[in-house]
Amino acid sequence: EKIRDRKAGGKWTELSDWYSWAVVTANLFVGINPYRGGHPKYDKMTPADALDARIRDHVSIFNPQARVPAVCYPFTNIPQALQW
Questions:
Q1: What is the Cα–Cα distance from 16 to 7, expressed in whole angstroms?
Q2: Using CA atoms, how far apart are residues 9 and 70, in angstroms rounded to an integer?
Q3: Model pLDDT, residue 84
Q4: Structural contact between residues 33 and 62, judged by C-beta atoms closer than 8 angstroms
Q5: Which long-range contacts (CB under 8 A, 24 or more apart) does 17-24 make?
Q6: What is the pLDDT of residues 22-68, one digit of tens each?
Q7: Taking a C-beta distance cutoff of 8 angstroms, is the pair 61, 37 a contact?
Q8: What number is the average pLDDT over the span 4-15?
Q9: How many Cβ atoms sit within 10 Å of the Cβ of residue 5?
Q10: Residue 38 forms beta bridges with which residues?
Q11: Cα–Cα distance between 80 and 33 in angstroms, integer?
């Protein structure tokens, strides 16, 4: 459930597989789902609603206003070849 492509609408495609791969990869290198953490626009929402909204709006942890927990690894842990 944590890596499901919510935008796929139950129609799994190669792109939804890549989405799930990206979520798993972010978890491995940084320690957080790329759509978790905090962001001022979504702070007053429930965590589940914030997750759905951030996915829909493409607001990941790489957004300049996003905040990640201090226990997360630095983004420099992501190999250069995988940085986008």
A1: 8
A2: 33
A3: 66
A4: no
A5: none
A6: 999 999 999 999 999 999 999 999 998 999 999 989 999 999 999 99
A7: yes
A8: 79
A9: 19
A10: 67
A11: 19
Taking alpha carbons only, the member of 25, 37, 45 closest to residue 65 is 37
DSSP structural state of residue 63:
S
Q: Where are the alpha helices (DSSP H) in the chain?
A: 14-29, 47-57
- Cα separations (Å) of 30 from 8, 14, 69, 81? 25, 24, 10, 15
Of 42, 81, 75, 79, residue with least CA distance to 58: 42
pTM score of the predicted model: 0.82
Extract the tokens encoding 12: 């799994």
CB 78 within 8 A of CB 30: yes
Structure tokens at 27: 């978890």
Query: Which residues contact residue 32 at a Cβ distance below 8 angstroms, ignoring those fewer than 6 apart?
Result: 26, 61, 68, 69, 72
